[in-house]
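INFO batch 0412 | record 1 of 1 | parsing
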Amino acid sequence: MNKTLIWGAAVVGVICLGISALYFLTPAGSLPGFMPGFETGVTTVHVKHAIGALVLGLALFAFAWFRSGPKRA
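INFO prediction complete | emitting tokens
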């Protein structure tokens, strides 16, 4: 169970980092229609969405790192 939780957090962290990069690099009008922040014809970038996904991804990596440490008695 513990290894599954660690690997799951790491995988979701990578996905969040990818989503963050997508938000940083893609204007709102070019985002996929199912993503929050999609607006037709808008050329601005959703920086708040990108920062939120980045912080979440880094938090998941930190969680996985601390959970994978040595076991205490």
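INFO post-check: The radius of gyration is 16 Å.
INFO record closed
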